[in-house]
Specification:
Elements (H helix, E strand, L loop, with lengths): L4 H28 L5 E6 L5 E4 L14 E5 L27 E2 L2 E2 H37 L6 H37 L4 H4 L1
Antiparallel strand pairs: 1-2, 1-3, 4-5
């Protein structure tokens, strides 16, 4: 095989990359296996690196140069003489809350409370606006005179009322969707209502 300098270096580079990737893959497979006890690595005369899990698999001429990479005890059942620790009891509710979907029950409570409070505030605002508008219009029919502030307030409430009602409908729809989601995740009914 005749190669120019550029081709020769490319060949060496690719060969090194190939060896490195193959070695890394073999190490990954071997280290991720629970059955591996000891791993041995050696390099042959071509420069290729080999990894095996038994010293008997290392060729005799390379045994002196073989390196022990990692010793990992294989999983065995403990003997009766060994001190076996009892299993750790599950955490109590104070240590860890049960999750409903991705969130604990306290999060669901807070979210429902927040959404309900927002709806309640907006309902009160709408009720106040409707009452003021009704009083203002009744007073105008009776030829009552109003201050500039009351007239401005009336005009503002008239403009805001439809937006607030649309917002209230959206919030109620969102709450219904949130309740449906909570039901799917098994959130208790007392919290959803």
């Amino acid at each position: 095989m005749v190669l120019n300098n550029r081709g020769f270096y490319r060949y060496l580079f690719m060969r090194t990359i190939k060896r490195t990737v193959c070695s890394a893959f073999v190490l990954f497979i071997l280290f991720s296996s629970d059955a591996v006890a000891d791993l041995y690595q050696w390099q042959d005369e071509k420069g290729d690196i080999h990894v095996v899990d038994d010293m008997l698999l290392v060729p005799p001429q390379y045994k002196d140069k073989a390196k022990k990479l990692k010793a990992r005890p294989s999983r065995q059942t403990p003997s009766p003489q060994q001190n076996v620790q009892p299993p750790v009891p599950p955490q109590t509710s104070s240590e860890q809350e049960e999750l409903y979907g991705d969130y604990p029950l306290s999060w669901w409570k807070n979210e429902f409370s927040s959404k309900k409070n927002e709806i309640s505030k907006l309902e009160n605002t709408i009720k106040e606006q409707k009452n003021f508008i009704a009083d203002y219009e009744r007073g105008r029919r009776l030829y009552r005179l109003y201050s500039k502030e009351d007239t401005d307030k009336y005009e503002t409430y008239k403009k805001e009322l439809s937006d607030n009602e649309n917002q209230l409908n959206k919030l109620k729809t969102d709450l219904d969707e949130f309740r449906r989601k909570a039901q799917i995740y098994g959130v208790p009914r007392a919290i959803r209502e």
